[in-house]
């Protein structure tokens, strides 16, 4: 009981007031009975409030409700359910022991729960790294309407939640892809060049259909214009290749570039599976870490999710020679390889270019790398002195060099996408759909 028993500030205020009255009573003896009466009233109030709060063994119940897994970089809802079994209203100070990864040291909520009623405390957490997050106990300090003392309730509610790549973002694009409405999320329409090789159906001609697709035999049989309808080729292999080297450790708005690449890979794989393509995954650094063969079975997305969940960066340089050897030996069918990496200088690109050209000789290679948003801020900032002019000039040089890298890759027959981290997913899907429409795979 003593470990859960606390005085409210009012007790100390009254106690200090009584002490002041006793000091003054040395000079004015008439004040002494007033101080004694104050202490007697305080003692009675403490006894009454103690009886009210400790009259029931379990006057308050609390439980935490949350999802089985969290989405990295997104808001995830958490609910604490409070149930008041007392016959009076409670003022509660709720403290939830949050995982250390969130770096939240002073989380608390104040709430009032009516008698024999329930109250929910809702809040959200936004994890910035994947892994296991452990929630501790729930601590609740309750006080009665008298407000003299408070009782501490401790509810053992230890829970471990796994934080996965952003499946919220994946579900959003999944719904849009299923309804063929990806352009509403910023995915642009791409003009189709010619027809794909897969015939889908014969349908009635409607205004706007290409008259070159008219099926004259079906038109003669039905006595009405009929056209052939074609669909994108299916069962093509799409591999997301993720660099886990030192350069992917760079942070942006709380997440590393590796986290952005993982989130985009999950969404891109899901869109590919929705379009009946085969999705696979490769992660590498100084050696090949993960190789998940491309497939379109029902469990493929879960396999990709579980593989991406545990990926971490290190500070070693990636070995593209080993990556090429693995791709050459394990991927026998021509595939689209979407390589998520980053280059900060033309020299680093030239070191990798021979290996990239060898990969592009056997497969369709798409390299996705990142703009340095900090450079953009420096370029757009106002220069007030010579030092600022020098810094802006260097920033513009590096920014221009990024665009030269795109041209260098294109000159060597390698597709490239230069994107800001926050636009990575949309730009990657745009390029995938563009390559599909061009029948480049």
UniProtKB/TrEMBL annotation:
Domain DUF58: 202-346
GO terms classed as biological process: cell division
Keyword vocabulary terms for this entry: Cell cycle, Cell division, Membrane, Transmembrane, Transmembrane helix
Stretch forming the signal peptide: none
Pfam families: DUF58
Coiled-coil segments: none
Alphabetical list of InterPro entries matching this protein: DUF58 (IPR002881)
Name of the featured protein: Cell division protein DivIC (FtsB), stabilizes FtsL against RasP cleavage
């Amino acid at each position: 009981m003593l470990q859960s028993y606390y005085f409210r500030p009012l007790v100390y205020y009254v106690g200090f007031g009584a002490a002041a009255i006793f000091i003054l009573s040395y000079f004015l003896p008439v004040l002494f009975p007033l101080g004694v009466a104050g202490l007697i009233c305080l003692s009675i109030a403490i006894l009454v409030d103690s009886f009210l709060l400790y009259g029931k063994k379990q006057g308050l119940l609390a439980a935490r409700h949350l999802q089985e897994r969290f989405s990295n970089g997104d808001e995830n809802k958490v609910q604490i359910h409070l149930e008041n079994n007392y016959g009076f209203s409670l003022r509660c100070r709720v403290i939830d022991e949050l995982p250390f990864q969130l770096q939240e040291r002073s989380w608390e909520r104040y709430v009032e729960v009516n008698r024999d009623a329930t109250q929910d405390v809702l809040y959200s957490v936004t994890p910035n790294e994947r892994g296991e997050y452990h929630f501790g106990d729930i601590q609740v300090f309750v006080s009665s309407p008298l407000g003299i003392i408070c009782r501490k309730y401790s509810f053992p509610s230890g829970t471990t939640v796994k934080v996965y790549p952003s499946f919220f973002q994946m579900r959003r694009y999944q719904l849009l892809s299923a309804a063929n409405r990806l352009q509403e999320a910023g995915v642009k329409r791409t003009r189709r060049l010619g027809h794909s090789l897969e015939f889908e159906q014969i349908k009635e001609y409607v205004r706007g259909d290409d008259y070159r697709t008219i099926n004259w035999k079906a038109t003669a049989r039905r006595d009405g214009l009929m056209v052939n309808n074609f669909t994108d080729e299916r069962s093509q292999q799409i591999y997301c290749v993720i660099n886990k080297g030192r350069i992917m450790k760079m942070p942006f708005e709380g997440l590393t570039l590796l986290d952005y690449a993982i989130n985009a890979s999950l969404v891109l794989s899901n869109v590919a599976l929705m379009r009946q393509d085969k999705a696979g995954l490769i992660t590498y650094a100084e050696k090949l870490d993960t190789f998940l063969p491309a497939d379109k079975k029902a469990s493929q997305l879960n396999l990709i999710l579980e593989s991406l969940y545990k990926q971490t960066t290190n500070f070693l340089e990636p070995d593209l020679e080993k990556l090429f050897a693995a791709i050459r030996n394990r991927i026998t069918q021509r595939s689209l390889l979407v390589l998520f990496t980053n280059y900060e200088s033309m020299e680093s690109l030239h070191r990798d270019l021979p290996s990239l050209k060898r990969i592009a000789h056997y497969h369709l290679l798409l390299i996705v790398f990142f703009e340095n948003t900090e450079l953009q801020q420096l370029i757009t900032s106002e220069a007030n002195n010579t030092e600022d002019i020098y810094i802006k000039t260097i920033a513009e040089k590096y920014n221009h060099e990024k665009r030269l890298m795109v041209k260098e890759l294109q000159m060597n027959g390698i597709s490239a996408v230069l994107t800001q981290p926050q636009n990575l997913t949309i730009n990657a899907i745009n390029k995938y759909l563009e390559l599909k429409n061009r029948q480049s795979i």
